[in-house]
Amino acid sequence: MTDVTYWKSALVITSNIVSRTLSKYPFMKTLGSFINKKSIEARRTVIDQQSVFYVFQLVIKTEYGRLGGENITPVFFKEKKIFIKASGSTWASEIWLNRGHIVKKVNEQLGGEEIIDLAMS
């Protein structure tokens, strides 16, 4: 008997024993049912508004320089949206056209899908 055949037959025997035991004793649970599925998933940490604003301002300064940092300011953060204020229509248009790229950069810095959109206020 080869090693592969031996292990296949051992696996079949083991699975038969488990299925007979579970059918004989329905109150027995499998090991997987004891594991709380929620505990396996990564625990989400709540990111506060100040952290989001800090990262957002870093991204804006990187992309648009000192003037961008002075003219584009975050106002508040709610439901995964950053509400921002721009000093003029040209800055507002620039942010609006590049909002996907900015959201992507902010999420990269935060390490997750924390921001879904930007909104002008």
Describe what this molecule looks like in 3D.
With 121 residues, the protein is α+β, with helices and mostly antiparallel strands. It folds into 2 domains: 3-37, no CATH class; 49-120, DnaA, N-terminal domain (GMP Synthetase, Chain A, domain 3), CATH 3.30.300.180. Helix content is 61%, strand content 14%. The protein contains 6 helices and 3 strands. Strands 1-2-3 form a 3-stranded mixed sheet. The protein is elongated and about 80 Å long. The mean pLDDT is 81.
- What assembly state would you assign to the polypeptide chains in this entry? single chain
Mean pLDDT: 81
Q: Which percent band covers the strand fraction?
A: 5-15%
What CATH architecture of the largest domain do you see?
A: 2-Layer Sandwich
Count helical runs.
6
**Count of discrete domains:** 2
Helix content: 55-70%
Instruction: Give the termini distance in whole angstroms.
Output: 75 Å
Task: Describe the global form.
Answer: elongated
Q: What class would the helix/strand composition place it in?
A: alpha+beta
Give the biggest sheet. Answer: 3 strands, mixed
Order of helices and strands: HHHHEEHHE
Fold topology:
Blueprint: H1 3-24, H2 31-34, H3 37-40, H4 49-71, E1 72-78, E2 81-86, H5 89-97, H6 99-110, E3 117-120
Parallel strand pairs: 2-3
Antiparallel strand pairs: 1-2
Helix pairs in contact: 4-6
